[in-house]
Design brief:
Belongs to the acyl-CoA dehydrogenase family. Its cofactor is FAD. This protein is an alpha+beta fold. The protein has three domains: 7-120, Acyl-CoA dehydrogenase/oxidase, N-terminal domain (Butyryl-Coa Dehydrogenase, subunit A, domain 1, Orthogonal Bundle), CATH 1.10.540.10; 123-229, Butyryl-CoA Dehydrogenase, subunit A, domain 2 (Beta Barrel); 232-378, Butyryl-CoA Dehydrogenase, subunit A, domain 3 (Up-down Bundle). It has helices spanning 7-34, 40-47, 66-79, 81-101, 104-116, 231-267, 279-307, 313-338, 349-357, 366-378; strands spanning 121-124, 140-144, 147-158, 165-171, 181-187, 193-197, 209-220, 224-225, 269-270, 273-274. The protein has a four-stranded mixed β-sheet. Bound molecules: flavin-adenine dinucleotide. Flavin-adenine dinucleotide binds at residues 89, 123-126, 131-132, 156-158, 201, 204, 209, 358, 361-363, 365, 367-368, 383. The site of flavin-adenine dinucleotide (FAD) has 21 residues, from strand 1, strand 3 and helix 10.
Length: 383
Amino acid sequence: MNLELTDEQEAVSRLARDFVRREVTPHAAAWDRAEEVDRGIVKKLGEVGFLGLTIDEEYGGSGGDHLAYCLVTEELGRGDSSVRGIVSVSLGLVAKTVAAWGSEEQKRTWLPGLTSGEYVGCFGLTEPGTGSDAGSLATRAVREGDEYVIDGSKMFITNGTWADVVLLFARSTDAPGHKGVSAFLVPTDTPGLTRRAVHGKLGLRGQATAELVLDGVRVPASSMLGEEGKGFSVAMSALAKGRMSVAAGCVGIAQAALDAAVAYAGEREQFGKPIAGHQLVQELISDIAVDVDAARLLTWRVADLIDRGKPFAVESSKAKLFASEAAVRAANNALQVFGGYGYIDEYPAGKLLRDARVMTLYEGTSQIQKLVIGRALTGVSAF
Ligand code: FAD
């Protein structure tokens, strides 16, 4: 793998850094306190092309490779994980999955709106009763003529209250386990679909997380994404790339933790000198720096594998596992550098830690990533 970025990759990374400095960082603390990101950010993300990365221009995308996508995701995560999550879900889990699995009609219906920021997408897999064991989901889609009638509920859906379309997973046949699951593209204004905001989150407080309830929701049969019974493969392929996106966001958190810790250690004086001059403070800072680099390299490797058309799912689980745990460690180390000031929200370390914490939980917990990696190494499924 060539670790030198191309001129285009450098340029998109710079563009993202400038965008985040201008449009995200100045508002991140206020959005966190208000528990709501300004929705206007979606249009701005679309205008600058960040909602269309890796998608063909023919469908409104801005092209680019997966490494460029990771660079942008890292910068967004460095500024505000709530904003990063909007992109990781609307583009990463929804638009990219429509691009990979969709019919021509589905691509033309959804991609231009999702890539421009006119539409927001959400990914409806988790249910109140099924999280890690997503293949056992209970939401049902029953065929009636040219339609499916969907009943069930979905929990913890990122972008849920904002979204115009949900990529929804439901059981449409009696085949056992995940083999009976199909994927559907459901407009959120379809009668029978209601949403309830989930409040009181530890982190990602600016993000619109929702519970969705589906009560007799009717969609045309043509809204199925991919073949009947292939829904779990659709979900897993989305999550394999999604885990790389989460990992890139975690690199951003860890980098932000490093930036903040170095700056504060240079300013704060104790025992007659800047705390940067105390060896144990340098230990905290160097531990963060190693976590940043290691997480970034693992994440870039996934992007490189995808861009070269190689298998990447297990490497994506490794990157997500390591980067998410690294982001929590890095943010916690940064908080320690800030001392008592790290514990109040005038300073950035507390928010970084709160935002980092969920990364080890969603898109597969750390335990689930270990089972994916363990299965690949041993050939034995321990799920
Ligand atoms: P459970 O599956 O109940 O797990 C509880 C504990 O048991 C965990 O520690 C887990 O690792 C462990 N465990 C479970 N099974 C095993 C096993 N076989 N071996 C070892 N340990 C095991 N979902 C979506 O579909 N779309 C979204 O947009 C989305 N966004 C989210 C946003 C937020 C802020 C949050 C908190 C969650 C989001 N989720 C979303 C859901 C998320 O993916 C799930 O919370 C996650 O998959 C874990 O499921 P669970 O919470 O039901 O935990």
